[in-house]
Amino acid sequence: MSTPQKTPLPLPQRQDLKSTLLDHPPDQGLLCPAQQLCSPTSVPTPKSPKKPKMQMAGDIFPTDWSPPPVEFLNPKALQTRWVGAAGPQGQRRPPKELEQKPLDLDSKQGMTSLEDLFWNMASPSQQAGTLEKHSHALDTSGHSEHYVNSLDYLLQEKREQALEQKWEKLLLHDHPDPDSSDSENSEVLLMPEQRILVEKFSVSLKVIPSVHPGETVFLPRRHPLPCILDSLHLKPHSHLEELFLSSPPDQQLCFLHNGLLHNLYLHASDCSVPLLQWLFQLLTWPPETSSKAFGLLWDLSMDGLFCQSDEDMHLWCPSLEEVTKAFHSLGAPNSDLCSLEPLQLSGRMLENKISLSCQEQEDSPQEVVLDISLSYIYKFLTLCVLMRPGSYTDQSLLQLIELLCRAGLDVELRLLPKTDLQQLLLLLLESICEWPGKLQPLCNALSWVSNHHHNLLALVQFFPNVTSRGRQLRSQLSLVIITRMLGQQDILFLWQEKTQLSLLSQLLSLMRPSSLRQYLVSELLPPFQKQQHKASAELDHKVCYLCHSLLTLAGVVVSSQDITPDQWGELQLLCMQLDRHINTHIRESPQAMHRTKLKDLATQIYIRWQELLAHCQPQAQFFSPWKST
Questions:
Q1: 24: burial class by Cβ within 10 Å (0-12, 13-18, 19+)?
Q2: What pTM was computed for the model?
Q3: DSSP letter (8 states) at residue 92
Q4: Residues 248-264: pLDDT tens digits?
Q5: Are 215 and 410 in contact (CB under 8 A)?
Q6: What distance in Å separates the CA atoms of residue 550 and residue 543, rounded to the nearest whole number?
Q7: CA separation for the pair 63, 59 (Å, rounded)
């Protein structure tokens, strides 16, 4: 059953609307609640005074089945509803524009007037924007302008920030930062009482660093040194190998990058030594080339080990000169590292210099590239020492250990792990045939690798405490470094293993801060004396820094020993000397935090030695003095 269609009601004319608005006095409001303006599609005519028929309680369906008007999508109806809304007293006074001009709902001017009426009767917090911006936002989005991030609000916030920055600059200009100006000028500005107060509560920024300073061993290189394959005495076995040997250096690198050299030499009966030397020198190139060279060099070496018998097994190992040459290619200009002559190239080779190095982009940092190349060298040397224990003499092993320790102290490698280096050093120690006789020259050579005590402490830590030779080297090398730092190299029983604890107890008396201060003043007195308090503060920091390294080395000496019951008395004497000469001579102060760190280390070492005393069974003579009676 279809409902009867409703005829559209005629809209009121402009004159009628004008008369209706002007007939009401201003004190009665614009419109009564019953005569509230509606949307244009549902505005009632003045000729229908009937009230809407009320729905009975028993009716199932409403009598008026027409759909509800969708008024929130119509901006004009929204504005009309805002105009007809009742105020706090139920009536509102029309603005002056509505009394003088007719209300045109179809024009933008009428919309602006109605919106102006709304914003005039709104609260002050809702009147933040201007009338034009509210009208524009209302036409575009159809929402109210009570929005926090409006354009005016953002501009106002930006102006306030600019004003705050301006005032901050003025304040900094009137009151400059004391750190930015010279120390002399800042001291002149301070009153004597203020200076005393600042010095009393000031905290020193000098602390004992946890990382060693390092040595400048490898200088950065933009491009690697040219590496030429010596193919004069090589006889090709195939057309592809002949093409490879006769190609210029850049095309030979293309053979390596494309993997063609694996097909040529991987399962061959024998591999030429010049090719292996060329691959070993390419380990010093950027990672794009060094990774390919290391993969081929490792595969060729392992293939030769598995294919050959035990009697005919032959593995090429780089000599000490070739390792030194590789370090020179990495940027080591030290004469101790690179004693070789510069690489002599023929005229044909100089014309065919490698141009591929300019095309390789080193996206990684310099220290990462250096660490990758050194890791490849360490791994290949480890393979050589494992598979051919007698490939290096004892003298070559000592020089190689010294060379590797110098390279490990590079300033760019301080924060990087050194697992490959530590494993290689342990293997080199185990490969020394005359171990007891080579310990003294090795310790003497390693103690002069660096002149800084913290670098020498880091060098001792290169040798892990996992083998007997490693523990013995750590203990003896620590004693040698302590005697060198204290100027006591002429001690007679330095190399006697059973007297190390007694020697250390004598050296602890020289490690007290007052003794170290006198020693440093006599040895390292600066030529130009500064102010007395500054020189004293700097000297105090150097004393605590040196004492910190010496105490750490003393802890290494004790921890490397196998404490026996007959050494219980010597260890107890060490604890007494540590507490007497170190702990009691350190005066902590808020102005010198390095003293606090030094005292913490001394306390930790003292507790560790006391634990060793508790676990060690002493002899009867130490706790039974009346045994003889």
A1: middle
A2: 0.65
A3: -
A4: 999 999 999 999 998 88
A5: yes
A6: 11
A7: 9
